[in-house]
Specification:
Rossmann fold; 11 helices; alpha/beta; 2 domains; Arc Repressor Mutant, subunit A; single chain; 7-stranded parallel β-sheet
């Protein structure tokens, strides 16, 4: 079910949130493209509800936005743009995963969006991949469209030709799993150690590699040759 934007919609009721499907949102100022994205998302079996807004401001005002698990966000919007909004979401509700939607933007925009907290980056020409992108995000992973990923890797290679960063053997093990989309809980199960221990190592890895989210972690580690084939 697709729901249009509202100036100040009611928060979702407890019974609405108890369903097994995902609540997904779209912020896109082109009404035709917004409707197309919503239709594509409706076809994904894991989706329970799709909410849509025409601007960053409309999303930010609407309390229903706080219930969205994954938000597909246009980079270029009138008024507040997507790069600014993803930063605000990361501060207020970091558990909301944000996937940026873009025509091929400048490297500055791509990296700023990732640094601000975006979990994924998808080209608007690749909507056929939106279902797989959503499943990856819901599974705790991160995803970047190949064209964007190549530019990320090239930039990291130029700025970080060799990056060992003093990782311990255990941190390298955890890095392999996190970069491939495993959640901290899943890494804990695989390695047979506590959630707290994995979380502590993950924070250390992020600090040593100077990254802020899964997308940056995967890109930087791959560019530095830290990931096994």
């Amino acid at each position: 079910m697709v729901e249009a934007e509202a100036e100040e919609g009611p928060a979702l009721r407890a019974e609405d949130q108890s369903t097994s499907g995902a609540f997904v949102g779209v912020v896109e100022d082109d009404p035709v493209y917004r409707a197309r994205i919503a239709r594509e998302l409706e076809r994904v079996p894991e989706v329970e509800r799709v909410l849509a807004w025409e601007s960053a401001e409309a999303f930010w005002r609407d309390r229903r936005g706080r219930q969205v698990q994954v938000l597909f966000l246009d980079v270029q919007l009138g008024g507040m743009d997507g790069v600014e909004l993803v930063g605000k979401i990361a501060q207020r509700r970091p558990q909301t995963a944000v996937v940026m939607l873009s025509n091929l933007n400048s490297d500055r925009v791509v990296f700023q969006a990732l640094r601000n907290g975006a979990t994924g980056y998808l080209l608007k020409t690749e909507l056929k991949d939106i279902g797989e992108t959503l499943r990856t995000i819901l599974g705790g992973g991160a995803t970047i469209t190949p064209t964007i990923a190549l530019r990320v890797l090239m930039t990291f290679r130029e700025s970080n030709p060799v990056l060992e960063a003093g990782l311990t053997d255990r941190e390298k093990q955890i890095l392999q799993l996190l970069a491939r989309g495993k959640t901290i809980a899943r890494v804990s199960d695989i390695l047979g150690c506590s959630y707290h221990t994995v979380h502590h190592h993950a924070r250390s890895i992020y600090r040593k590699l100077d990254v802020h989210n899964r997308s940056e972690l995967a890109g930087k580690a791959a560019a530095a040759g830290l990931l096994d084939d």
